[in-house]
Specification:
single chain; alpha+beta; globular; 9 helices; Glutathione S-transferase Yfyf (Class Pi), Chain A, domain 2; Glutaredoxin; 4-stranded mixed sheet
């Protein structure tokens, strides 16, 4: 049975831009599992009500429903142990959890400072009022004001990448010679930005730029072929 994945989409249903969904898209192809992606939008709460919550990714595997990108990755690893490992070992699973928290608490807030308004511009009309209202309430300011200093946010983002940059000077992926879920955790953030914005985040001589290119080209160029902007 083909796995189903509810995946955040813009006005163009082929523009899939959730960083959390991209983690799972990469994990599924890493595991060589067939998947049917189902476009979902912020106000389509009823469509995933069966999952008991209101956000994506939502993965449906037969009679099982799994939510949250971290839980889904762990489910895939444990449910399909005969396929390529996402973590490699239990110690690496714990290390990946650290990277998840670093991405979500450091990188993603800086990324949002750069692309929040770009996201809004790509949303389906039915999602725009919801997105503006909820995000402006969270930010305490308009979307326009929130991204007004995005060059400064880019400086902070590049500085926050220093440990990753140093690490990639030693090996091609966070997983070593081959990517693991730790790579997809970080890559999801870059793919999120690329799918909604033409704002240039990385310098071409940055080792992180080369790492991102390697991930874009994985699996027949799955991520590079996604609707988005050139990098």
């Amino acid at each position: 049975m083909v796995i189903q994945l509810y995946d955040l989409a813009g006005v163009d249903e082929n523009r899939r831009f959730s960083p959390y969904c991209w983690r799972i898209r990469m994990a599924l192809v890493h595991k060589e599992l067939q998947v049917q992606t189902i476009p979902w939008r912020f106000t389509d709460k009823a469509a995933i009500a069966f999952s008991g919550q209101g956000a994506v990714p939502v993965l449906v595997d037969g009679d099982l429903t799994v939510v949250d990108s971290w839980r889904i990755a762990n489910y895939l690893e444990d449910q399909y142990p005969d396929r390529a490992p996402l973590f490699g070992c239990e110690a690496a699973r714990h290390h990946a959890l650290f990277i998840k928290l670093w991405v979500e608490r450091v990188l993603n807030p800086l990324a949002l400072r750069m692309v929040a308004l770009d996201i809004f511009k790509h949303l389906h009309e039915k999602d725009r009022a919801y997105f503006r209202e909820t995000r402006e309430k969270r930010f305490g300011m308009s979307l326009e004001a929130y991204v007004s200093n995005r060059e400064q946010a880019r400086d902070g983002f590049r500085e926050a990448l220093a440990p990753l940059r140093a690490f990639l000077g030693e090996q091609p992926f966070l997983g070593g010679l081959k990517p693991l879920f730790a790579d997809y955790l970080v890559f999801g953030t870059f793919q999120w930005m690329r799918c909604v914005s033409d704002f240039q985040v990385l310098a071409k001589d940055d080792p992180v730029y080369a790492w991102r290119a390697r991930l874009l080209d994985l699996y027949g160029g799955l991520a590079r072929a996604a609707v988005g902007y050139p990098v």
